[in-house]
Amino acid sequence: MEDLRNKYIEAIAAAADEPALEELRVQAVGKKGEVSLKMRELGKMTPEERQVAGPALNALKDEINSALAAKKAALADAALDARLKTEWLDVTLPGRNRRQGTIHPVSQVMDEVTAIFADMGFAVAEGPQIETDWYNFDALNIPGHHPARAEMDTFYTHRAEGDNRPPHVLRTHTSPVQIRTMEKTGAPIRIICPGRVYRADYDQTHTPMFHQVEGLALGKDISMANLKWVLEEFFSAFFGTHVETRFRASHFPFTEPSAEVDIQCSWEGGTVKVGEGDDWLEVLGSGMVHPKVLEAGGIDPNEYQGFAFGMGIDRIAMLKYGIPDLRAFFDSDLRWLRHYGFAPLDQPTLHGGLSR
Ligand code: PHE
To answer: Going by CA atoms, what residue is nearest to atom 4 of ligand 1?
Structure first.
C-alpha cells in the first residue's frame, strides 16, 4: 500500500496538464482503478485483517482524491497566470484619439438660414455654378453694355479658337436661380437659394469664391412691406435678438424699386455687436422683381409681382460667430476649422435652437 501511495502521489505532483491528471484518477481511484480493486479484495479478508486494511485503503483513497483536486487547482492557477502574462494590457496608456471633423461655419449658417426661412414657408432651390450669360446677366435685365457686367469682375470660361458662342461664366450671384425657378415652377414662388458665387476679387473682405443666399417670393399682391417683415423676422431669429433694419434706396437692374438693407450694430470695445448700438452694417441687396425679369422667366408681370433679395452668407457668419478674417474661411487650416467648426450631430433647428 505504501508503494501504491508513493507511485500516485508522485505521479500526480508531476502531471503536466488536466488530461494527464484525469488519466491518473482513472488508474488509481476509477471503478477499475488500482485502489478500487484493492478495496474489492477486502471481502476475502478475515475480519481482523479487514479492520486494519479497510480504514487504510479509505485513507489512501481520500489522500489521492485530495492530491488530485489540489493539483487540478494548481494547474488552473498556472494556466491563468500564463494567460495573464500574454494578454497583459497597460490600462494607463492614453486612449487612441479618434478626431471628429467639424461642420464649417458656412455650412452651419446655411443650415440655420434654411431652417428659419423654411419655417416661413420658403423652399430651397438650387442652380448650376457655371452659368450662361443669359441666366447670369441678360435675363436679369443686365444687357451686354451694362456697367454691372464689368463691375462684377466676372470669371469667363475658355472657348476654343473659332468658337464664337458666348462663353459661360462662373455665376457672379445667386440671382440666376430666380429665372431657373420661374421657368421650372411658374408663380407663385417662395424660395431661397443658398450657394457659391464667384468674382475676381481678393483682399481682406473679398475672396474669389464666396456664398450668397437668394430669396424670391412671387404672388398676386406681395409687396415691399412683406419683404421688410420677412427680413426683420429673419435677422431677429438668426442673431437671437431683435435687430433693427434700415432700407436705403439703391439700384439693381433686376429690381425696381431697389433697396440695400443694413442691420443695426455697435462697435463698442472694438468688436462688432449686432442688434444694439447705432451704427449700421450693409448685409444685402433687395427690391421688387423687375417686370422684365418676370417676363424673362415666363411669368406675366401683369398678374404676378414680388420681392427678391441676395445676402452674403460668409458676412453674416462672421458677424454672428465673431470670425475676423474672411480669407481664413477657405484656407482649410485644421486649427481654424477645429476652433470655428461646429459639432457634426448638432443640427440647427427652430425647436432645438439655432445659435451655437
Ligand atoms: N444679386 C445682387 C448681388 O449679388 C443682390 C440682389 C439680389 C439684389 C436680389 C436685389 C435682388 O449683389
So the answer is: 173
Helix (H), strand (E) at residue 281: strand 279-289
The DSSP-derived string for 91-147 is TTSPPP--PPP-B-HHHHHHHHHHHHHHHTTPEE----SEE-HHHHTGGGT--TT-H
Cβ–ligand 1 distance for 175 under 6 Å, the answer: yes
Ligand 1, pocket-test mutation among 136, 140, 153, 254, most atoms within 8 A of CB: 254
Estimate the crossing angle of helix 224-239 against helix 105-119, to 10 degrees. 130
Residue 102 Cα to ligand 1 middle (Å)? 30
In which residue ranges of the chain is pLDDT below 50? none
* Rounded Cα distance, 136 and 128, in Å: 11
In the three-class reduction of DSSP (H, G, I as helix; E, B as strand; rest coil), residue 6 is classed as helix
| Pocket lining: 286 vs ligand 1, CB cutoff 6 Å | yes
Q: What phi, psi does 263 have (nearest 5°)? A: -115, 150
Residues β-bridged to residue 284? 261, 311
pLDDT tens, position by position, 269-302: 888 888 889 999 999 999 999 999 999 999 999 9
Strand partners, 194: 213
Residue with cell string 485503503: 57
One-letter amino acid for residue 229 of the chain: W
Cα–Cα dist 207/328, whole Å: 10
Does the CB atom of residue 173 touch ligand 1 within 6 A?
yes
Residue 140 CA: nearest ligand 1 atom is 1
Tell me how far apart the alpha carbons of residues 122 and 311 are, in angstroms, rounded to a whole number: 15
Cell of residue 210, nine digits:
464666396
pLDDT of 356: 64
pTM beyond 0.85: the answer is no
271 φ, ψ (degrees, to nearest 5): -115, 150
Torsion angle, CA of 12/17/19/25, rounded to 10 degrees? 10
Q: How far is the CA of 323 from the centre of ligand 1 (A)?
A: 24
Ligand 1 in contact with 287 (CB < 6 A)?
yes
C-alpha of residue 134 to centroid of ligand 1, in Å = 16
Residues 6+ apart with CB under 8 A from 189: 181, 182, 216, 217, 218, 306
